[in-house]
Amino acid sequence: MKASEVLRRYKDGRRDFGGESLRGQSFRGMNLAGADFSEADIRGANFTNACLRGAKFGGAKAGLQRRWAVFFMAVSWFLSALSGAFSLWIGLVVIWTFYSDEPELFIVGVASLFVLAVFFIVTIRKGLTPGFGAVAVASAVTVTGAVAGAGTVAFSIAGTVAVAIAGVVAGAVAGTVAVAIAGVVAGAVAGTVAVVIAGVVAVTGAITVVRVVAAPVVAGAVTLLGMYLGWRSLKGEERDAWTRAAAIAFVATGGTSFRNTDLTDADFTGARLKSTDFRKATLTRTRWRNATKLDHVRPGTSHLKDAKVRELVITGDGQKEKYDHLLNLQGINLQGANLVGANFTGSVLKDGTLQGADLTDAILTVANFNKVNLQDTNMSRAKLKQAQLDKADLTGATLTGAYIEDWGITTTTKLDGVRCDYIFMRLPTKENPEPHRKPDNPNKNFAEGEFVDFITPMVLTLDLYHNRVDDPRLIAIAWQKLVQENPEAQLELVSIEKRGKSKDKLLLKAETSPQVEHSVLHSEYFTNLQHLESLPPEAKQALLRERGEMIQILAGLLSTKHGSPEVSVNNHQTQEGDKNMAGDRNIYRVDGNYSEGIYNE
């Protein structure tokens, strides 16, 4: 089906193009959102800059058209022949130098073999790039030590080694291209071409039996090293990743292109994606389950460039695996994945989906789950310390036994239908495996819906955490300034808590109106505080005198164990209509707002 026909039918309301042959068609810049291309043949199709939000490509076949595959295979065989020719040259040079009566040529042969041996060993163990460095060092040492000042010999050694390296690189690229196009068999054929050319011509030019044996051995060794490196790079070895990247980029030139395409919520389940270009594509919540040849695509900077992550999105099995501190997982689709005990510490999964995933015992500390779909996930016993959950959807999630110390839920976090029998407010230790359990009674659990009622008031507060308290009076001034300059925020201080083992840290909690941005108020408050702390002593004293008695009272409430001044907290009881308030409390006013702070010494 032609692209023009697809667009015409799409405009008429058709969305099902499953099983159609769209080979080589151009859909560049078209809007085909929601279209169904399941089982379609999209080899060589161009979707560059298109909008394919929600499109389905389940079981589709992407990659090269046949004519491009033939062309690239021919290129691979040419490189193989070139590798064989280079290898032949090396074999003949070595034989001639060993059977020559000229001492200089003998030195060239010995030195070249030494340098090549170093190159082979280092390259096999560590990769081509370290091999190049080893050649440079070995060549310098060999030439300097053996024939200092002999320019002809040095040039001969350098030339021999350079041709050998060229042969290895040509072989590596040839093998990689061949396997990238048509698989292991094609790679083996490409390697055979190189070895046959090197061996046959070497035998033809040989004179003695020894030479007949030696020439193919040396030439074949150079060729086979190149083919081995090509095969190794396609297996995902990081040592020679650049050869793999170069070969895949070369082959993908004629393949299916999704470059700069919006593939938000698109589905590639079971699709064959060899030689496909996804550079700069929007892959938000794009599904890859059971896709094949995803390791043969051009991923750009997306999460698909990580081999371990590719395996995860394909199989959905990341049990007990480590995916920590990965900053490019934004928009990842792990719907229904097995992530039991997985570690995502510090990773960014913003805008993605983990709907229905099993995150039991997972380590999610400091992970970014902002705007992530976590509906119906099982996060039992998961560690959620400082996890960011702004605008995340936890509808129907299970949180029983989770550790939620300083987790970052907000008023926009959806908690409808959360299932939770009990929760821990701190991370476990050997001494205390169940710290700060809520409900406090180990024999009591939250009733249905009770956890949400318990946690919601904590969400509605602005939290101002202080790692150190140099002068409580400055904190009081910064707080007063925040209240005065943001009347629409309706700030009301509701609690003051001492934190840390030495009780030298401070947490202020304040209720606000639902509409305000807590992040803006948080930034403004600490900017003011830092400015106050930077003032010279004379300016601080003048400011304190200006603010007067109210600051002294509030500063007393803010004083920590090592701070001053101290204030006493007296029991008192007030009567207001039918409402009684009793206990150890401080009641004070901030700019006319009635506030109440609990202050425990």
Describe this structure in words.
This protein has a three-stranded antiparallel β-sheet with strand order 5-7-6. Strands 1-2 form a two-stranded parallel sheet. The relative contact order is 0.06. The protein has helices at residues 3-11, 66-98, 103-126, 128-146, 151-182, 184-205, 209-234, 241-251, 307-315, 450-459, 472-485, 518-534, 537-547, 549-558, and strands at 256-257, 276-277, 423-424, 437-438, 461-466, 492-499, 505-511, 571-576, 579-584, 586-590, 593-597. The protein is mostly helical and 601 residues long. Among the domains are: 66-248, no CATH class; 461-597, no CATH class. The protein starts with a helix and ends with a strand.
Neighbour order of strands in the largest sheet: 5-7-6
Please count the beta strands (DSSP E, at least 2 residues each): 11
Poorly predicted regions: 138-161, 163-168, 170-213, 560-601
Secondary structure: helix percent = 40-55%
Q: Beta-strand percentage?
A: 5-15%
Radius of gyration based on Cα positions: 35 Å
Q: Tell me, what's the shape? A: globular
Q: Main beta sheet, described?
A: 3 strands, antiparallel
Number of helical elements: 14
- Rounded mean pLDDT is 76
Give me the strand/helix succession.
Answer: HHHHHHHHEEHEEHEHEEHHHEEEE
* Category by helix and strand content: mainly alpha
Cα(first) to Cα(last) distance is 78 Å
Features:
two-stranded parallel sheet, disordered C terminus
SSE order and pairing:
Layout: H1 3-11, H2 66-98, H3 103-126, H4 128-146, H5 151-182, H6 184-205, H7 209-234, H8 241-251, E1 256-257, E2 276-277, H9 307-315, E3 423-424, E4 437-438, H10 450-459, E5 461-466, H11 472-485, E6 492-499, E7 505-511, H12 518-534, H13 537-547, H14 549-558, E8 571-576, E9 579-584, E10 586-590, E11 593-597
Parallel strand pairs: 1-2
Antiparallel strand pairs: 3-4, 5-7, 6-7, 8-9, 10-11
